[in-house]
Amino acid sequence: MKSVLLVDDDLEFSELACRIIEYLDCDVYCAASIKEAQQWLSTQTFDHILLDFMLPDGSGLHLLDYIQSANIPSSVTMVTGHPSVKNAIAELCNDNVGHLTKPIDADDLKKILFTTSHKTKVEGKRDSKDYTRHFGCLIGESEAMKEMYLMIERVARTDANVMLLGESGVGKEMVAQAIHNASNNTGDRVSVNCGAIPKDLIGSELFGHEKGAFTGANAQKQGVFELAKNGTLFLDELTEMPIDMQPNLLRVLETQTVTKVGGTKSTPVNCRVVSATNRSVEEIAQNKVLREDIYFRLAVFPITIAPLRERKDDIPLLAKYFLNELNQQHDTQITMSRPDLDRLVQHDWPGNIRELKHTIHRAYIMADLRHKCLVFPDTLDSPFSRRSSATTQADCQVVQAQDQLINKPDIAVGTTIEALEKELIYKTLDSVDGNKTNAAKLLGISTKTLYNRLNTYQHSH
Ligand SMILES: Nc1ncnc2c1ncn2[C@@H]1O[C@H](COP(=O)(O)OP(=O)(O)OP(=O)(O)O)[C@@H](O)[C@H]1O
């Protein structure tokens, strides 16, 4: 006899579902919250778990994450009654997790519980492909990611505004999606790129407009705050919104209402704002790119996402994940060699996960079809590698020195490599006030080599 755990706080639905499940000759156990479900799961195994999306103590996705992380070998089906989350759930559910929409009938349940289809099978924490999608979208098991998952889980339960800080390509938009997935919000996630809103359309974009409010306003339009009602508004590139446009945003945040351009009726705002920026908090404060009052309203809960070079443990996992996605899309079985994987781990990835994803894609396009393996270019460096690894001020200075030298228009044809090298060494030394240890580090040579070179130059005088 199959055993089923039904996790749902809707008593009426649970009662009906239990009757059908029993009629189908299965044992059924009920839990009305994540906590109760975890108690059952700690003492018993189930063939199947039917999981409601919205539970009183969090999203069903939390429990899904727990089931996968704890390696619980049950089939899982997400159940939702809310039409607005139906599509989102369908998207989140993959080969390993099934989904059902309420109202359900005996045939639906029979199909779900007795089908041999792999659609509803969760193969433990890590499926055969070796990764777990946290909150339905995030890949990564490094300490930095685990800490962030905890923050996402905690903040998702509240309605606090979140500010995501991190370099380009670290996954800020993905984390915004994860917060939305993990919350109990029933509305949509709406994104807006703050750096790309034309100045004369800022009001219309944020608050919406009434028909005829201005030339070209041929129909009524909802603003992003209204579109994100009961959901999440993702303000990408927040600090790129010109300072003179920011009072518009402040007005909504202060009054918690919006009035359409050309309208008179104000509508209450009811959404969580998740904002993102590539700039550091220090830079935001120093360069005054964001009004302080907006910062404090939006950065109630700031989350800094670590660059990929600081969580190298995630590189193999992400690389395999991106390769798997491509293999699945194109029905291929391309693999990656161990040395290539090691090279990926050693690289610094200044463009972070986006750059890694594109590198895998490129290597997939170039794949050797006879040996079924990825083909990577000789160097993984992008034009941005050198610059972005220059993190300290001294690094920047030496890059400038090197740039000046490299772009120097008056390098005479026939200038020797030795002469150029000498000039580069002296310029680098100048840029770090003669500190030989720093200069050697920046030049990528040992201090001993630097002393040797300087000695040679002195003796050649
Ligand atoms: N943890 C992750 N797991 C899987 N894919 C990820 C993860 N983080 C990022 N990605 C992928 O990497 C790419 C870049 O992510 P995203 O657009 O979220 O970065 P971002 O920080 O918002 O970048 P930008 O600041 O340039 O807008 C996307 O294709 C995204 O799907």
UniProtKB/TrEMBL annotation:
Any one biological process term the GO annotation gives: regulation of DNA-templated transcription
Keyword Isomerase among UniProt keywords: no
Modified residues (4-aspartylphosphate): 52
Residue span, Sigma-54 factor interaction domain: 138-365
SUPFAM superfamilies registered for this protein in UniProt: CheY-like, Homeodomain-like, P-loop containing nucleoside triphosphate hydrolases
Domain Response regulatory: from-to ranges: 3-117
Gene3D superfamilies, per database record: 1.10.8.60, 3.40.50.2300, Homeodomain-like (1.10.10.60), P-loop containing nucleotide triphosphate hydrolases (3.40.50.300)
PROSITE patterns: RESPONSE_REGULATORY, SIGMA54_INTERACT_1, SIGMA54_INTERACT_3, SIGMA54_INTERACT_4
Swiss-Prot/TrEMBL keywords: ATP-binding, DNA-binding, Nucleotide-binding, Phosphoprotein, Transcription, Transcription regulation
Database matches in CDD domains: AAA
Name of protein: Sigma-54-dependent Fis family transcriptional regulator
GO function terms (MF aspect): ATP binding; sequence-specific DNA binding
